[in-house]
Amino acid sequence: MATPFVPFTLVSSSGERYKVPTQDHIFFAPNVDDDGSPLPDEERSQMFTVFARGSRLRHLFFDLITAIETEGTSGTKRATN
To answer: What's the pTM value of the predicted model, to 2 decimals?
Structure first.
């Protein structure tokens, strides 16, 4: 059984915040090549894409994300590093 998507907000080292309300709002490049073979670490993408309203999108580097915030059951935000 699949786990339901939980909306979250990404926080960058500059303090910018990027909401990810659904799984359709974030895209990660594949970690395999055209033949399905795993890519070595040095050839894997160093960034991912977050989509916002309309055609607005942001390319974010993994290394610059400092926190992922989700809404807790009590309505407070929890951050994980």
So the answer is: 0.79
